[in-house]
Each structure stands twice: as C-alpha cells, then as structure tokens.
Amino acid sequence: MDSQVLLFMVGEALRLGLAAVFVLAAYHAMRVWTLFGGIVEQYRVAPRWLARLAARILPPLELVVAVCLVLPATSRVGATLGMGLLALFTVAIAINVARGRVSIDCGCGGANGQKLSRALVVRNLIMMLGLALAWAAPDRGFIDAATAIGIMGLAVTLTVLYFAANQLMTNFQASHPPGTRTLP
Amino acid sequence: MTGLLISNVLVWIGLIGLLLAVLALARQVGILHERLTPVGALTMDHGPKVGEPAPVFTLSKLGGGEISIGATAGRSQLLFFLSPTCPVCKQLMPILRSLSAHEAASLEVVLASDGALEEHQRFYVREKLAPFPYVLSTDLGMTFRISKLPYAVLIGPNGVISAKGLINNREQLESLVVAQEMGVASLQDYRAKTRQHATARID
After folding, report:
1. Does residue B56 belong to the interface with chain A, where contact is any CB pair within 8 Å?
2. Residues of B in contact with A145 (CB under 8 A)
3. Which of A51, A67, B50, B197 has its CA 20 to 30 A from that of B62?
C-alpha cells in the first residue's frame, strides 16, 4: 500500500468535507444575519462597530474559503484562509471560556443554542489540523473510480460526523447546565 | 475487482446512512431537552408563599417524642406530605432515604400525613420509616393547603419557606433543593427570569 495514496485520499476528503462545513456555517450565519451581529458583539473581544463589521464580513468570507477549497487551483489558499478564520474564532472562544463567560451563544450554526466550552476549542483545533493536512496532501493527476468513491464517501462521512459531534456537545450542555447539581 | 468496487460503494452507503441516523437521533435528543426544560416541582399557588416565614408547629412523632416544624435550628427542613395509599409516595422513599442520609448535617426530612393512627402505624412499620420523624396533623396539612400528594415544602435554616411543590419524581425533588440554593421560588420562576434576561440581551 502506498502511503502517498492514503495521504492524498484523506487530504482530498478533508478538503471537500471542510468546504461543506464552511458553506453550512455561512448559510446558518446568513439566515439570521441581524441576530448574528449581536452574537459576535456578545463575545466582547472587539469594539461594537468592529463586531458589527465582522458579522457582515465573516459569513461571506466563509463562503470564499469554501469555494477556494473546492477548486483544486486555489485549495491551498482556501486552507490557509480557513485556518486563519478558525484561529480567530478559537482565540475569541478561548478568551471567553477563560473569562468564564460560557453561557453566551457560540454562533456556530448547525446546532442551535450551542454554548461555549473547552470542547469547542478542541473541536476547532482538530478542524485546523484537518485543514493543515489538506494543505500538505500530495497532488495526483489521474484517479480511478474506487479512489473517487472512497474520497466522496469519506468527505460526506466527515461532514456528517462534524454535525453529529456538534449536536452531541450541545445536548451535553443542555443536560449539564452550569449551577445545578444532582442529589446523592 | 468489480465485486470489490460494488461492495465498497455499498459499505459507504451503509456507513453514511448510519451516520445520518446518529445525527437525527442526536437532534431528537436536543429537541427533547428543549421541551423538558421546566422539570421543576410544580408549585400551586396556595398556602404560605415562598419567601414567607413558615408557620411554626410542635407535633408529636409517631415513634415517640416531639418535633418542632418551622423553627429549625440552623438546618433546613423538608416537609414531605404523603399517604399510605399513595403509590408514588412509596416510590420516592428510597430517594428520601438517601437524601436524608447524605445531607443529615444540613437537612432534616420530616414525613407528614393525617388520618387514622393505626393505619399510619402499620405503614410506618411496614415501610421501615423509623429513621424519619413522622407526624400526623390535619392542621399542618390545612395550613400549607396541601391538596395533592406527594407534596414537599422546603424550609430554609432561617425558618423561611424556600421552595415547595408537587413531587412526582427524583428530578422534581432535586429541583426544590436547587431552587433553594439558587435563591429562586421554583424552577418555573427561574426559567421565567432567565427568559426575560435572554430577551433583554437580544434587544
């Protein structure tokens, strides 16, 4: 077995899967665009005008990342830009987790009402690792049907897994709200 | 080679189908969480209100001796109204036992009922209720306006009623203690407050 083939397949799947995640994140943010401004503001990491501006710019930027990732010629640009965006989000989340302001809305889209947590920071770091792998993956010209099927399958699997993990994180927060306890 | 390719496709379809099922299940759990949120004991607006001083009683216990209700010295008191004929009350006994055993330093669980003494004596012996103070008083039930069972009233260490409600399960019993710790009358009250807070934040 050729390790280059494995790396190529994983890289391609990550590229496509993460592109789908970025598209869906942008879609969820744009659907509630006015509310999204308030969510960004709640992070309290930037002055009000900058937060409002960021809320206008970030969703289209996520779409740009997705398009760049899908097009083979610009996939490395997309991966770099995506890592930059994720780094920005992760820092903002980590600052608020450190402040103890974990009850604010994540604004991650997908699972509604997701709150901040340390798990969210870990999730973002894993996504950044995925983008790095996609960036570093080797190129291949011709691929056969089995490889294509494997890549598509893995890409869809990764996307669905991402949303399932997100939902499970949200469920966990709902069943363990801060400030409650169970009797012996 | 064709067989391998076809089986590969089938396996991917199966895997993705399973994952979609997991995602759907997780979403359903999330929706259930949203619907279930007010699990607190249901308070009925009768009798002394939460935040008011509890009426003080001195009653004789079933096993002998006296106990004062409402005049607690530094400990919280959980009045649990029950009846020998109420099946839910019996279901809750193990939870009350563990609660009174684990929180003995800060909480006293008192069982309260009314009716014929012999019936309660039999119930007391059969259900092995000796660890609990057990009082019989129609007056007590009337004062707290108990109309449904099992009902619990939590009196704080300062003699003020800190939470009360109809109790049907463990979660509702827990909610009384949580409501006391959080300084809210009931979890419905807490929910209403946080909801106002959340709307204010969005505005």
Report:
1. no
2. 5
3. B50
Whether the model pTM is above 0.90: no
Q: Judge whether B61 is closer than 8 Å to chain A, CB to CB.
A: no
Q: Which residue of B has its CA nearest to A162?
A: B23
Amino acid at the residue A8: F
R_g of chain A, CA atoms, integer Å = 18
Identify the three-state secondary structure at position B6.
Answer: helix
Of B3, B43, B23, B201, residue with least CA distance to A158: B23
Q: Which residues between 17 and 76 in chain A have a beta carbon less than 8 angstroms from any beta carbon of chain B?
A: 35, 38, 42
DSSP code, position B107: E
Q: Counting one residue from A and one from B, how many pairs have CB atoms under 8 Å apart? A: 71
The answer to whether B174 contacts chain A (CB < 8 Å) is yes
CB of A175 within 8 Å of a chain B CB? The answer is yes
Identify which of A146, A167, A183 has the shortest CB distance to residue B27: A167
B26 interfacial to chain A (CB closer than 8 Å):
yes
Q: How many CA atoms lie within 13 A of A81 on its CB side?
A: 19
| Strand pairing category for B134-136 and B151-155 | unpaired
**B84 and B119 in contact (C-beta within 8 Å)?**
yes
Nearest to B30 among A111, A153, A183 (CB): A111
CB of B16 less than 8 A from some CB of A: yes
SS3 of A67-90: the string is HHHHCHHHHHHHHHHHHHHHHHHH
Tokens of B34: 């949203």
Tell me which residue of A84, A154, A82, A162 sits closest to A120, measured CA to CA.
Answer: A162
**Quick one: which of B140, B152, B145 has its CA closest to B115?**
B140
Q: How far is CA B144 from CA B7, B55, B193, in A?
A: 70, 9, 26
Determine the Cα–Cα distance for residues B61 and B133; give it in Å rounded to an integer.
Answer: 6
